[in-house]
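Appendix B. Extra example for self-study. Work through it before the problem class; the solution is given directly after the inputs so you can check yourself.
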Amino acid sequence: KQEVTQIPAALSVPEGENLVLNCSFTDSAIYNLQWFRQDPGKGLTSLLLIQSSQREQTSGRLNASLDKSSGRSTLYIAASQPGDSATYLCAELSGGGADGLTFGKGTHLIIQP
Amino acid sequence: NAGVMQNPRHLVRRRGQEARLRCSPVKGHSHVYWYRQLPEEGLKFMVYLQKENIIDESGMPKERFSAEFPKEGPSILRIQQVVRGDSAAYFCASSPRHQETQYFGPGTRLLVL
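Solution. Structure tokens for the complete assembly:
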């Protein structure tokens, strides 16, 4: 059974700081990994997807990395803003036959103005 | 260019009633996934469908739950004889091809009284 763990569960930082969110996974046959944000009472917004053959992906102030050998991914947020406050979820898709994403429980991020 | 649409957004049912949740994927997407998010839990995969076919239902409870994705019309997740433990947010996602980025809808929040 695949597992995805996100640390920390919650994080509060002042506006303007750079920060890193961590995600670890047990699946050695990972196909891709996706980072999402979820706002309270809302759906999920896809931020970045990294294929297993890639090391990182960038979009604006966001950079996601993937290290298959250590089973880790990080989401780097540069120059954080209050609008970045949300829950960030990572999810992996296995190449080993499972058809659905396996999600972590998320990191609840608060950016203090 | 509409994203994934789900309705209703909120649904209240009494124990023993039926709940029908609808999902219209992104136009042109033929792959649909359903996930459930229980209170204080992460999202869990339930079922994966491709037009008129159930591909993987490994995450769906064996009893009372069923899903379909007809040739015409939205995908339907049906829960018969609901119980309080079914109270959760149910999310639908779609993708243009399998193992590509999944785009999520806003979810249906089911409350069973």
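Self-check: Chain B touches chain A through 27 residues (CB under 8 Å). If your reasoning did not lead you there, revisit section 3.
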